[in-house]
Amino acid sequence: MNKTDVSELGDHIGFWLRCLSNFVSYSFAEKLAKEDVTVAQWVVLRTLYDHDNITLNQLAELVGLDKSSVSRMVERLVVHGRINRSEGNDRRSLGLSLTPTTRKLVPKLAKLADQNDEFFFNSLSARQGHEFLATIKQLLDANGWKKSERGRYGIE
C-alpha cells in the first residue's frame, strides 16, 4: 500500500472534534476539581437540581448512563454528603435529591461551566455559536444518537 493511499489524521473532522472535546472537557474538569466534583458528577448534580426526589432508574435515563454506573456514582455522592437518598421498598425506588449545601453549590458550578464555554467559544459570534450547536445536534440526530448512548461514547 502506498503511503499516499492512507488519509492523514488531520484530514478527519472526527479527530479535530475529539481534540476540541478533550480540550474543553479537561479544562472544565480542572475547574470542577477545585470544588471536589468530577465532570460525571456535575452531570448528575445538575440533573438532580432540576429533578428533585427521583429514582435511580429515572436519573440513569436522564443522564444517559447505565444504571450500575449511576448507582456507583450515587453511592460516592451520598458518602461525600452531596446527595440524599430516601429509602423505598427496594434500591430501584430510592428517592434521590441534592443536599441543601449542594443545591447552593450547583449554581456556582454552572457558572464555571458557563465560563469554560465562554473561554473556548468566545471567538464565535452568538449566531455562529448557535449554528455550531445546531450543527452538532443535527449530526447526532442524523446518525441515530440517543441520550442513552452517552456513557458508551465517553460522556460520563
Q: Outline the low-pLDDT stretches.
A: 151-156
Which strand order spans the largest sheet, edge to edge or round the barrel? 1-2
- Morphology call: globular
Biggest sheet record:
2 strands, antiparallel
H/E order of the elements?
Answer: HHHHEEHH
Q: Summarize the amount of helix as a percent range.
A: 55-70%
Number of helices: 6
The helix-and-strand class reads mainly alpha
The CATH topology label of the domain at 8-115 is Arc Repressor Mutant, subunit A
What would the average pLDDT be, to the nearest integer? 89
Range of strand content: 5-15%
Distance between the termini: 39 Å
Count all strands and give the number: 2
Roughly how many Å is the radius of gyration? Answer: 19 Å
Would you mind describing this structure in some detail?
- With 156 residues, this protein is mainly α.
- The chain has a domain of 108 residues: Winged helix-like DNA-binding domain superfamily/Winged helix DNA-binding domain (Arc Repressor Mutant, subunit A), CATH 1.10.10.10.
- It is 60% helix and 5% strand.
- It has a two-stranded antiparallel sheet.
- Strand 1 and strand 2 form a beta hairpin.
- Helix 1 crosses helix 5, helix 2 packs across helix 5 and helix 3 packs across helix 4.
- The termini are far apart.
- The C terminus is likely disordered.
Summarize the structure.
The chain is mainly alpha-helical and 156 residues long.
